[in-house]
Amino acid sequence: MKLGSFIIRRLFLMLLVLFGVSVLVFVIAKVIPADPVGAILGGNAPIDLVEDMKRRLGLDKPLMNQFIDYMSGILRGDLGTSLKSNRPVAKDIANFFPATLELSICATFLSVVIGIFLGILSAVYRNKFIDHFARVFSILGVSMPVFWTGLLLLLLFYFRLGWLPGTGRLGLFVTPPTRYTGLYLLDSLLSLNFEAFKDALAHLVLPSIVLGYSAAASIARITRSSMLDVLRQDFIRTAKAKGIGKRLVIYRHALRNALIPVVTIIGLTFGGLLEGAVLTETIFGWPGLGRYIVNSLLLLDYPAIMGGTLFVAVIYSLVNLIVDIIYAALDPRMRI
Amino acid sequence: MVEKSETTISRWKPIIEDWKHTFYLWKRTKLAMIGTFIVIGFIVMAVFAPLLAPYDPIKTNLPERLKAPSKQHLFGTDQFGRDIFSRVIYGARIEVWIIFLVTVISGVIGVAVGVTAGYFGGVIDEILMRITDIFLAFPRLILAMALSAMLGRGLTNAILAISLVEWTVIARLARAEAMKVKSQPYIEAIKAVGASNFRVLIFHVLPMCLSPVLVQLTLRMGTIILTAAGLGFLGLGAQPPTPEWGAIVSDGRSYLVQQWWISTFPGLFIAVVVLGFNLLGDGIRDILDPRLRR
Predict the structure, then answer these.
(1) What chain A residue is nearest to B222 in terms of C-alpha separation?
(2) Which of B130, B137, B267 lies at the smallest CB-CB distance from A148?
(3) Is the peptide bond before B63 cis (omega within 30 degrees of 0)?
(4) Neighbours of B25 (CB within 10 A)
(5) CA distance B185 to chain A (A)
(6) Residue A61: which H helix or E strand, with range?
(7) CB nearest to B222's CB, from A17, A143, A313
(8) How far does B100 lie from chain A, in Å, by closest CA?
(9) Which residues on chain B are in Cβ contact (under 8 Å) with A29?
(10) A212 and A199 in contact (C-beta within 8 Å)?
(11) Residue A305's closest CA among B225, B159, B211, B151?
């Protein structure tokens, strides 16, 4: 299959799935809860208040009409109004998402650098100390609960040692940079606000480590096994026989081929970071999308819940699609 | 008579040899052994919780509140004077219960969907797999959170929510297995004899798909604990005073600086038990897949 038609097919499938996703979100938010208004107002609310709330939310209409309203809203980019903030959900998401994006990008960067580096080392020095170390590092990374490591690091580096700032994206006395993208690192550079840049960077360290650790662990494992596969192939032996230095063989010949499966894992971990972000953001008081969704769930603010989960699912699907396309471009066998 | 006993020997011998070989491989991988002992310890802890725990895990005892770890309270006490050690021990019961139910529910749904899709193929396969894709389009924890919150927060609904997220993995695996099995000649033979689709599916395809599914279910147990603890921590899973480990970690959050023990010990137990399951899982994978043994 040509790459072009592969992409078109996948895009079409994704649209189909996303339609299903919106249906599922609708079912979760509107069909499962027995009494959304009661959950918001409490059981003893006066009847006229309940009726008014129902009308305002469109809950007095038949389910089918509600569904049509909801779908046409999505197509217009209108995700409804949050019950708590009284702002359009789409606006809330636009406000909160950059924080999550910034955190995820930093965590991905960290995990890719550490993961690939450790993976290469442990493949090249198989069964040596560094390999055992990497194994322990990886298995701990996928075993420790994110929220627990987060709390312990916060306790150690913020409360006890005071080396790093605690919660939030910026210190209290630092003026936030002018908003261009919502990514503080980028914005502070663009507005030449270096104090904010330094502070934002310091605030990113702990959450990025917490979030990136488990991702680094899985990247290291995949890189190792993929490197081992490549290193025992004939062309590596040929390269060595030609007298090329070990370093060059590893980095120029082996790594390039070994990275194909790693690309997939990086994509998957980026998606996985969206979910790790929920816990990390809760611990570090990070004003991102994950915390927004958790808070809406705790308050049963269901327009916000629907909008938030739908948005996350769209991002997640897009990332997966991009990964598939890169993979197909790198390895034509995958285009089926 | 002699002939018969000979056939029994020859029938059992390879199986015994196989087990012996597995045991040998298991003994060779130290990490898998450690994992096995951790998991066994975890189950023993859950079963004998009432004997092991010195205090009631739920009853409050205000004069004893926020006590540091000591001989009376090995892991200290929380803001209600409850013994953290006892809560953690009883928590093992909750985690085992979660693992058990999620494994059963998601296993049943996953196998049913996967085997049906793989065996029948065509339109049925297409529909079932697109439904699976819809569930896979969400980050797992976020879907579990939403389901759990909307069903109503609590342990049972959290279990249901995690199961509704977990089944997709099993469904994909069972489908692939069913597709492999269905093209075997013996299935054709059974059909030629006149067995109905239903009969072939239940008695001949399904049993052949089970063993990889069981392995996969074991491999996922660590993840299940992490998801359940994550939900508990966020307040979207088991509700207080249930001694679910994630929920206890969350209890201790506001006391973290002075009373570090409330959050630290239950979190440590989550980490160790999940580590145990992961080591065991790695071991199982190594034993089953010789290509990875290097």
Answers:
(1) A143
(2) B267
(3) no
(4) 16
(5) 26
(6) none
(7) A143
(8) 19
(9) 146, 150
(10) no
(11) B151
Q: Which of A147, A169, A148 shows the shortest CA–CA distance to A101?
A: A169
Asked whether B181 and B187 are in contact (CB, 8 A), the reply is: yes
Going residue by residue through chain B, which has 294 residues, state the pLDDT in tens, using 9 for 90 and above. 444 555 566 777 777 887 887 777 777 778 888 999 999 999 999 999 999 888 888 888 888 788 888 888 888 888 888 889 999 999 999 999 999 999 999 999 999 999 999 999 899 999 999 999 999 888 888 999 999 988 888 899 999 999 999 999 999 999 999 998 888 888 889 988 988 888 888 898 898 888 889 888 988 999 999 999 999 999 998 888 889 999 999 988 888 888 889 899 999 999 999 999 999 988 887 777 655 444
* CB atoms near residue B212 (< 10 Å): 16
Residues 6+ apart with CB under 8 A from B91: B57, B243, B244, B245, B248, B266, B269
Q: Within a 13 Å sphere around the CA of A216, how many CA atoms are in the beta-carbon half?
A: 22
First vs last Cα of chain A: how many Å apart? Answer: 7
Q: Which residues contact B263 (CB under 8 A, 6 or more apart)?
A: A148, A151, B248, B249, B250, B251, B252, B253, B255, B256
For residues B198 and A115, what is the distance between their CA atoms, to the nearest angstrom? Answer: 48
Q: Phi, psi (5° rounding) for residue B67?
A: -85, 140
Cis peptide bond upstream of B241, omega within 30: yes
pLDDT in tens, A300-330: 888 898 999 999 999 888 888 888 888 777 7
**With a CB-CB cutoff of 8 Å, which residues 205-234 of chain B face chain A?**
222, 226, 229-230, 233-234
Is B83 in a helix, a strand, or coil? strand
Q: Which of B251, B279, B277, B275 is nearest to B264 (CA)?
A: B251
Q: How many CA atoms lie within 13 A of A158 on its CB side?
A: 21
- Residue that is written with structure tokens 């769209």 in the block: A314
Q: Beta strands of B99-187 (E only): which ranges?
A: none
Model pLDDT for residues A48-98, shown as the tens digit of each residue:
777 777 777 777 778 888 888 888 888 888 888 887 788 899 999 999 999
Option in A228, A275, A298 nearest B141 (CB)? A275
Q: Tell how many helices (H) and how many strands (E) occur in chain B.
A: 12, 0
CB interface of B with A, residues 163-192, below 8 Å: none
Most A CBs within 10 A among B30, B134, B226, B260, hence the mutation to make, goes to B134
Contact A139 B150 (CB under 8 A): no
Query: The tokens of B82 are what?
Result: 């409850």
Q: Do A126 and B246 touch (CB under 8 A)?
A: no
Q: How far is CA B21 from CA B33, B57, B218, B293, in A?
A: 15, 44, 20, 14
